[in-house]
Amino acid sequence: xxxxxxxxxxxxxxxxxxxxxxxxxxxxxxxxxxxxxxxxxxxxxxxxxxxxxxxxxxxxxxxxxxxxxxxxxxxxxxxxxxxxxxxxxxxxxxxxxxxxxxxxxxxxxxxxxxxxxxxxxxxxxxxxxxxxxxxxxxxxxxxxxxxxxxxxxxxxxxxxxxxxxxxxxxxxxxxxxxxxxxxxxxxxxxxxxxxxxxxxxxxxx
Length: 205
Fold this sequence. Notes:
- The chain is an alpha/beta fold.
- The chain has 3 helices and 8 strands.
- It has one domain (43-202): Rossmann fold.
- It has helices spanning 3-11, 85-100, 170-202, and strands spanning 26-28, 45-52, 63-69, 72-81, 103-108, 117-129, 136-147, 152-164.
């Protein structure tokens, strides 16, 4: 477990149950909990840009969402993310793609970098599902790959993962959602590599 996340887990505990002492406010960082990715023999493309798209409400706030019933959300009162997932997730994906060596350069929209290929990412859901306690950390994203030269969408796919939570509280929810995010990336990378290889092979030289 990353040291920073471990420190946050020591900071406080917020249960979705009732009663007990009021805990101190705590912050948790969304992490990619996977080990280092094995590098490709060679980059697939020279450069790749990541663009975050407008997210579901659970991904565009520092509040950590939980749900007891489908499509009904509440937020942990004394716990929050250190940064909106809409900003944090693209950076985590950038780091994973850089470790993998998918491109010579990987950036996020807004950085001074030119690239023919764009990966758009939308957070469809990010929450602690406690309909059956202690629940599951759920992460769902939609990824779209574009060829920027001709403004063509190459491929589109949704990735959704649920990881069991150790307990029905904010610290366990943060760990479960970080683990689910790592598994989403595990699924996204092979898909992206195949689509990039096929698209790059067809692209004019």
